[in-house]
Automatic annotation (TrEMBL):
PANTHER family: PROTEIN SERAC1. It is found in: Endoplasmic reticulum; Membrane; Mitochondrion. InterPro entries: AB_hydrolase_fold, NPHP3-like_N, P-loop_NTPase, SERAC1. SUPFAM superfamilies: alpha/beta-Hydrolases (SSF53474), P-loop containing nucleoside triphosphate hydrolases (SSF52540). Residues 75-97, 350-369 are annotated as: Disordered. Its main location: endoplasmic reticulum. Residues 353-368 have a biased composition (Basic and acidic residues). One of its GO terms (cellular component) is endoplasmic reticulum. Residues 79-88 have a biased composition (Polar residues). Gene3D superfamilies: alpha/beta hydrolase, P-loop containing nucleotide triphosphate hydrolases. Keywords: Endoplasmic reticulum, Membrane, Mitochondrion, Repeat. This is Nephrocystin 3-like N-terminal domain-containing protein.
Length: 569
């Protein structure tokens, strides 16, 4: 559930509904940053114009007659009454695709992307006044890094983060604030404050100037000099802390190294690879935080670069963004490791809640977590940048525009599995082009993802796209995407998948090259009798070529018919 983000202090960006989180992610912004804006990318999209004509969803002929192919293929497989299809004939739809307008859509990835990979997590974002100057008259915050770190420590203690493992994601100056905060926590005589560092499982640094940055300080000094001449106040404490090899930064780094060795949490470093071009000459022609400054200098940090400048390295355009794949992939790995540890050492209820926090070595210990490295390599093999391209392009629905489907009795029966033994488990939504079917599917999937945290089901989705590259239209990418989502969510399905691959003496690489093998393995995975129910959403199936549409219709009818007969989930 998303929450309001405050300018200062801790805000809850996301938390699972009716479920206890397994881990807390804490985002801390940097110099001149903001707890929402620093992690938000504004993306230009097209959405139906407000002046669009009102149409009706209808099962009439679709583009190139391909929807009729689906209908005829399904009809040959059984009586038309066995395929439940809600008819939204009287419901308002969206206008034709060309009747659109440009809009800027905000993607706040801690709430919009990360919960998809880490559903049983609580995601917090911390805000503090790190501005070097105000652009209007008025006082600036004179607090030093020490004060900001102290405020963060007390805020974390109030929010009860010591009850579960903590993962910090810190951009720029935020990394210094986090290191100072952990130092204060380790020296505290109070249990609730000391528990913060004891609960820390990992820290992810994004462009943190561990050794100061002359370029960074010069930027601030230039701005401060210009604005100070106008009679506006500035904050020299923040600028002084960013000077090259200052005493404060050296002391903070030495203290952090001691804490890291003592508490043995995991550290991951991401560095910027681009300079701040297009701003001007001088220091802006270089990286804001040079490599020697953004490195701690310890092989355990496993430093990587992001293809972005200092400002943009914390903002991503979607699940397929290469930079998000690195950062989100790291957080997903940490999450899965913590979920595994939690399943082996369940939290004990009582007045003193305990949890098991893995050491940094346990994240890579193949004896302790035997299948995790293999699972991660499998997910990497299945993943493709095109998997979620269409999903990201679909606009969010206007309020209440999709409620007709969710209130429809056929959909409610299908979704809740409140149907008779002889009824189909395949639900087909029909409509003319541009009437909003994809928007409805995206919203249906979003609600199913939300519900899976409190219900006994897991869900996955794929959105075909005939525009752009061929890859999003292929059957192969459909099955790779669905497998990637399901195996990521279920260790049980992953182990069954591995057993099947070993049983047939094949490899993942070989299977991915042959569509029939891929479909065969997918069918094996989804036909297993596991405790969770599997709900799949597939949008725009008619974007495939004619033969593929027919094959897909038969394939999904066969799977759902078998599931009904064998009473599988």
């Amino acid at each position: 559930m998303k929450q309001c983000i405050l300018d200062t202090g801790i805000s809850v960006a996301y938390e699972p509904e009716n479920a206890e989180p397994i881990v807390d992610f804490v985002f801390v912004h940097g110099l001149h940053g903001h707890p929402y804006k620093s992690w938000t990318k504004f993306i230009e999209k097209r959405k139906p114009s407000s002046q669009a004509a009102v149409g009706k969803a209808s099962p009439n002929r679709d583009k190139d007659g391909r929807e009729s192919l689906i209908r005829r293929a399904l009809a040959r497989l059984g009586k038309s009454s066995s395929t439940t299809s809600p008819e939204p004939a009287s419901q308002p739809g969206l206008s034709e695709a060309d009747n659109t307008e440009k809009v800027m859509e905000a993607l706040f990835w801690p709430a919009d992307l990360l919960p998809l990979e880490c559903p049983k997590s609580r995601i917090l974002t911390y805000g503090y006044d790190s501005k070097i100057t105000k652009y209007t008259s008025g006082a600036t915050n004179k607090s030093s890094l020490l004060s900001h770190s102290k405020d963060l420590l007390f805020s974390l203690a109030r929010h009860g983060v010591h009850k579960r493992p903590l993962v910090f994601i810190a951009h720029s100056l935020g990394g210094i604030v986090v290191k100072e905060m952990l130092g204060r926590s380790s020296l505290s005589a109070e249990d609730d404050l000391r528990n913060i560092v004891e609960s820390t499982a990992a820290i992810v640094f994004l462009g943190t100037p561990h050794r100061g940055s002359p370029e960074f300080a010069a930027i601030g000094e230039s701005l401060r000099s210009i604005v100070s001449s106008l009679g506006m106040e500035t904050t020299p404490a923040n600028l002084d802390a960013l000077g090259l090899k200052t005493t404060d930064l050296e002391r903070a780094q030495e203290a952090f190294s001691t804490i890291w060795n003592k508490y043995d949490f995991r550290v991951k470093t991401f560095q910027e690879s681009l300079s701040m071009t297009g701003i001007g000459v001088g220091p802006f022609g270089n990286k804001v935080v040079p490599d020697h400054s953004s490195l701690i200098g310890d092989v355990r940090e496993r430093a990587e670069t992001l293809q972005a400048n200092h400002k943009d390295m914390s903002r991503y355009s979607g699940l397929e963004d290469p930079n998000y794949r690195k950062v989100g992939g790291e957080l997903g790995f940490l999450y899965r490791s913590l979920v595994y540890v939690n399943s082996q050492s369940p939290i004990r209820a009582g007045p003193s809640i305990e949890h098991k926090k893995p050491s940094s070595r346990s994240f890579d210990d193949t004896n302790h977590l035997p299948h995790l490295p293999l699972k991660n390599s499998t997910l990497d093999s299945l993943w493709s940048p095109a998997m979620h391209s269409r999903y990201q392009d679909i606009a969010h629905p206007a309020d209440t525009t999709c409620s007709w489907l969710f209130n429809h009795q056929l959909y409610q029966d299908w979704y809740s599995e409140n149907h008779g033994h002889n009824q189909s488990r395949l639900l087909w939504l029909k409509g003319k082009p541009g009437t909003g079917k994809s928007v409805i599917m995206k919203e249906a999937f979003r609600l199913a993802v939300r519900d899976q945290r409190t219900s006994n089901h897991m869900t996955a989705a794929f959105f075909f796209d005939s525009r752009g590259t061929e890859l999003p239209c292929s059957e192969s990418i459909l099955f790779r995407s669905l497998l990637h989502q399901l195996l990521m969510k279920s260790d049980k399905l992953f182990l069954l998948w591995r057993e099947k691959i070993q049983e047939e003496s094949t490899t993942i690489e070989s299977m991915l090259c042959k569509l029939q093998e891929l479909k065969h393995f997918f069918q094996h995975v989804v036909s297993q009798d596991i405790s969770e129910r599997i709900i799949l959403y597939i949008d725009a199936l008619d974007e495939c070529d004619s033969k593929s549409v027919r094959d897909q219709a038969y394939f999904w009818r066969e799977i759902t018919t078998k599931a009904r007969k064998e009473e599988l989930n």
